[in-house]
Amino acid sequence: MTLARTRTRRRRHEGAGSRGVLVACPDSRPPAYQAVAGLAGAGLLGEFLTGFYDRGDGLAGVLGRSSPRLARAFRKRKDPAIPSALVRSAWSFDVALALENRGPRFRARVARWRTRHFDRLLAREVDRLRPDALLVFSDVGTDFALPRCRELGVPIILSVVHGEVHEEVDVLEREAALSPEFQAIYLGDGRLDRDELAWFHDRRRREAALADRVLVPSEHIAEAYARHGTPADRIKVVPYAADTRRFTPRVEKRHDHSCTFLFAGGITQRKGISYLLKAWREAKRPGRRLRLLGALPNDATPLAPWLDDVEILGRLPHADVPAVMAEADVFVFPSLFEGSAVVTYEALASGLPLIVTDAAGSVARDGVEAIVVPSANVEALVEAMDRLAEDPARRSAMSRAARLRAEAFDWPRYHEALVNAVEGLIAV
To answer: By three-state DSSP, how is residue 99 classified?
Structure first.
């Protein structure tokens, strides 16, 4: 977005006596913070309702200064491009989430309480602000906020951060048949509670039905939503992005017959981890290595027989991730169910060819920056890993293409696309 266009939008917005766009997301996921930053830059932000947000003052400021660990955590909960005066924090969401993660006894009850409590808070903000539009991220406005918007005539923009719910049901049924021994780690340390999942699935169906515009991060999800009843003219694809200044290729890298494969993310069955490990057992050769960036589940028993000759890096500070990414030769991410994994954009920005499934939601193109394989297919993964490991020249060409693709999908481009989607529903 050009500076001139941003200033013009801001003048038009302010001159019309507009109340701006209310954005709601309780966590610090990058697409939400970037959406808020983009709307703020265009002069369209009314308020951002979220969970804990670090303004650098009060109790948070004291705690951050007293503990390096907390300071690192708090850095994820602020963005200099977001006007802190327009942020309203709902700490109760984070407190409930901490209690939920302490044990299974009340997990489902607390999860429902925090979701509905945030929903009520959001409905009150809709009543108070009467915004020009509500941009809401998945799961948090179904029962109270979105119906209230309908009553008031406030346009609703839903940003979907996950795959389509019917698709997840299909994935779970397939996994129960194909890989029952890995069901316990479908969500890693998170317990797979089918009743709780069904409750969230129901909310997501109702959200899509209430929304005037459904923003999805990939063509794969757009097709799934259209296939299951959301009118195609209400769906808009707005891919995510990576910080192409932080994630960059290693200039001195030389592509040869050694090959380092990297997986990064939650080491869970939902990310296809068992299929990757089984493929690695067949694809490993002298000069090849597989690195997993992420923490193993607390109970990694199902994975234990498959971890020989695999390098477990564990969970690293986000500041250390770009260097690890740049050291690799190929990024492998065989996810079974996803929105659009930001880590795939980061890998592209690092100049890595990708091996991904359609479900990963990547913008990488098959045969250009990536080899796209079917989900849950060990044979296809082995073939893709062999092809890239054995062809350094191809990896080099795909590496250059990957970086160019990432540069075409940076956060300023996301800002522009999101602002355009919002402006399509409100008068400015």
So the answer is: helix
pLDDT classification of 59: cutoffs 50, 70, 90:
low
Q: Long-range contacts for 146-151 (Cβ within 8 Å, ≥24 apart)? A: 146/206, 146/207, 146/210, 146/211, 147/210, 148/123, 149/210, 150/210
Q: How confident is the model at residue 2 (pLDDT cuts 50, 70, 90)?
A: very low
Chain centroid to Cα 204, Å, comes to 16
Candidates 262, 412, 401; CA nearest to 329 is: 262
- Assess contact for 400 and 351: CB atoms under 8 A: yes
Structure tokens at 235: 């769906």
Paired tokens of 316:
């690293």
Residue 332, helix vs strand vs coil: strand
Contact 264, 321 (CB under 8 A): yes
Contact 383, 357 (CB under 8 A): no
pTM, entire model = 0.90
Separation CA 361–CA 240 (nearest Å): 10
| pLDDT of amino acid 97 | 77
First to last CA, the chain: 16
**In 342-428, where does DSSP find H-type helix?**
342-349, 378-389, 392-407, 411-423
Question: What φ, ψ does residue 256 adopt, rounded to 5°?
Answer: -135, -160
266: left (phi over 0), alpha (psi -120 to 50) or beta: beta
Q: Match 């399509």 to its residue by tokens.
A: 424
